[in-house]
Design goal:
The protein is an alpha+beta fold. The chain has one domain. The chain is 20% helix and 17% strand. The protein contains 3 helices and 4 strands. Strands 1, 2, 3 and 4 form a 4-stranded antiparallel sheet that branches. The chain binds zinc ion (ZN). The site of zinc ion has 7 residues, from helix 2.
């Protein structure tokens, strides 16, 4: 975990360095929404809004059309992003 970054900085969805390569190599329907790698047993989910433009908390009110729903996040990416962990939930609603 990088302690130099503020805990408030959220990563962007689908923004991992090799997301597109990982995602196309992955046989799962729903790979990690940050790095694109497969998740053996999905545990953490984070809501994606703005048509995939950013993550949001469960409480935030957004236009229905921009709400992309809950996306699985791998344990590694959750561990590296404390701000994301803060708005993630265990399992799907
Ligand atoms: Zn990941």
């Amino acid at each position: 975990m990088k302690n130099t970054e503020p805990a408030g900085a959220l990563p962007l969805p689908f923004s991992g360095k090799n997301y597109h390569k990982n995602e196309s190599d992955c046989s799962q329907d729903e790979p990690c929404a940050i790095c694109g790698k497969g998740i053996r047993s999905p545990t953490w989910y984070v809501r994606v809004v703005d048509g995939g433009g950013r993550f949001a908390s469960e409480e935030e009110v957004v236009p229905e059309a921009s709400d992309m729903g809950w996306h699985a996040i791998g344990n590694t990416c959750i561990g590296e992003n404390p701000a994301l962990r803060a708005i993630a939930r265990l399992g799907l609603p």
